[in-house]
Design brief:
Layout (H helix, E strand, L loop, with lengths): L2 H31 L26 H31 L3 H4 L4 H11 L3 H9 L1
Length: 125
């Protein structure tokens, strides 16, 4: 082997190695960004139920608070649904509003008005 060929092979080997290293790094970063263990939800603080006396029942204030929280969640859901519906209603579909240009109509009509024999020869190629 000549010296030039050895240099070319050495450069291509190093380049190939760097390329695969970059690909492995990219794939590793993609797996890291989508890893479930990395983005676990925060653990919920456990409330010690043993310290609550058994004679104490559930407070009606807590039930009212839970009901109020549920109503608040429902109001937010309704507000989100209305906002999405309004945004979709304001945005007109692009396909329905687009008008075909004269140039496009001319060429479309030419293609449709071609004789069948000419259309068949085009398909056979």
């Amino acid at each position: 082997m000549t010296a030039q060929m050895e240099t070319v092979l050495w450069i291509s080997g190093v380049g190939t190695g760097l390329l695969f290293l970059a690909l492995v790094g990219l794939i590793g970063l993609m797996y890291l960004l989508t890893a479930q263990w990395l983005f676990r939800p925060a653990p919920v603080a456990a409330t010690p139920e043993a310290s609550i006396p058994e004679s104490a029942s559930v407070d009606p204030v807590d039930d009212g608070n839970e009901e109020e929280e549920e109503r608040d969640r429902q109001r937010r859901a309704v507000a989100l649904a209305v906002a999405i519906a309004c945004a979709q209603a304001e945005r007109a579909p692009m396909l329905l509003t687009a008008v075909a240009s004269d140039w496009r109509r001319l060429h479309h009509n030419r293609r449709l008005s071609q004789p069948r024999s000419r259309a068949r020869t085009r398909v056979r190629r």
